[in-house]
Amino acid sequence: MTSFTIKQALRMASHAIAGSDTVQLDAELLLAAVLGKSRTYLYTWPEQVLSPSERSYFESVLERRVMGEPVAYILGTRDFWTLTLRVNRHVLIPRPETELLVETALALVTTQEACIADLGTGSGAIALAVASERPVWKVVATDMSGDALTVASDNASQLNIVNVEFRQGSWCDALPPQLFDLIVSNPPYIDAADAHLTQGDLRFEPHSALVAADDGLADIRTLCSQAPQCLKPGGWLLLEHGWTQGPTVAAILQSSGLETVRTLKDLNGNDRVSLGRRALLQPAQ
Fold it and tell me: What is the pTM of this model?
């Protein structure tokens, strides 16, 4: 086998996965993982020769990427907020847009001590990000999938985040009998007929965590009907949704009796998160 340098490996990878939206990044992440080095190392030592085993391993992971498998699943990790999370095919891959939920949750709840819930937690991304920033808060994270909860609880252990309780069940039915300062969720919101489900990373992610009935709105409707009874007076419900769903989700929040309803845009300028507040108790007469 002829010598095979880092520079050659990156060039080969870039040609092989030319259909990716992030060709160079994908190539760098895969090769850095194979070598156990940083991405900076790849350009500091471009003439470094891969060993036969390194080359073989790189070619095997590259083939998985050529077949469309997401880099996060190949590597087994994805960075989110300030955390590196373990991910596999039982959970959605955390995306930068979802960090808006974390940022908004931290801004909405201003008390030193609080109790919040993350429903449909998946890898635990939202719950663990919030818990890492507010270690005295109590965070409850729920999911229907036992496999997803295993991933989330493993992430909590790996990150030494101890203020999260994991519970299995459907939406608010899984919550303990107490009232929350905030409930946050990134629920399934893609319509089953959406062509994007047959493209890119979505082909490999768990269908049940992506797709909802009623044009993608069924789970959002359920959350909006259940959550007000689980919120403290003045507590917030915070939901991620599709970029075309903002007005509809805002209307659902309002019809559920929530107040101060508004929709926030992500860094791309798209409607991404809608929120509403349970009314404060009326003063006694």
Answer: 0.92
